[in-house]
Specification:
Elements (H helix, E strand, L loop, with lengths): L14 H10 L4 H14 L9 E2 H9 L7 H10 L6 E2 L1 H9 L7 H12 L7 E2 H14 L6 H15 L6 E2 L1 H10 L33
Antiparallel strand pairs: 1-2, 3-4
Helix pairs in contact: 1-2, 4-6, 6-9, 7-8
Length: 212
């Protein structure tokens, strides 16, 4: 059923699909339908084919005047569950559900672990932490000296790498996040509690770019 939201289905969403996705996620049927409206808007802002391409995802998060970065690229890849280069509607709903306020903390911890595990080894290594940290700083327009960046990485591994093997496994990561809950702050989007009442703020940039 991988083509459930393919070309034949791009212009409508049947109730049984909404109900199925609602049962799989933290969203109600009405909220799934509201997300479908958002999905169609985002999926046609650059390439009008009803699917969310990476450039559309980046454009929605960063705006047309911002350069893509590793952080946004990683989030896109985690949304793209089928690894086919686009985000289909079912993937969109399932992935957004991780950011719902009522989603179990363990799911959020797992998502962030995957975000940092750039090389898909099942571990977070120093270079991966540095790459992600630099990407986040860039997106936040923050500039830190190399010494400060290295100090942050050293502190992270001093606290998290309890096995002292130079890498952080999933159990160590869970313990580290439990002690540092602010690491999950960006993983909860309050407006997802009632998406049928308000569109997600990151969609304000989905207007068609001037170059389109």
């Amino acid at each position: 059923m991988g083509g459930k939201f393919s070309k034949k289905r791009r212009n409508n969403l049947k109730y049984n699909d909404s109900a199925r996705l609602a049962a799989m996620t933290m969203f109600s049927v009405n909220e799934v339908e509201a997300l479908y409206v958002l999905y169609k808007r985002l999926g046609s802002c650059i390439v009008d084919d009803g699917l969310i391409h990476k450039e559309e995802f980046q454009h929605a998060l960063l705006g047309k005047n911002r350069k893509p970065n590793l952080f946004v690229d990683r989030v896109f890849n985690l949304f793209d569950l089928k690894r086919n280069g686009v985000i289909e509607f079912e993937e969109f709903v399932q992935s957004l559900s991780v950011f719902h306020p009522n989603t179990p903390k363990s799911d959020k911890i797992s998502f962030v672990f995957k975000l940092y595990d750039l090389r898909h080894t099942g571990y977070i290594e120093r270079e991966e932490v540095k790459e992600m940290l630099l990407a986040i700083l860039k997106e936040s327009d923050l500039i830190l000296s190399e010494d400060v960046v290295e100090a942050i990485i050293e502190k992270t591994f001093t606290e998290a790498d309890s096995k002292h093997d130079g890498r952080i496994d999933q159990d160590e990561w869970k313990m580290f996040v439990e002690k540092n809950p602010s690491l999950l702050k960006f993983m909860t989007l309050p407006y997802l509690k009632d998406v049928s009442a308000a569109f997600p703020s990151f969609l304000v940039h989905t207007e068609v770019p001037d170059s389109a």
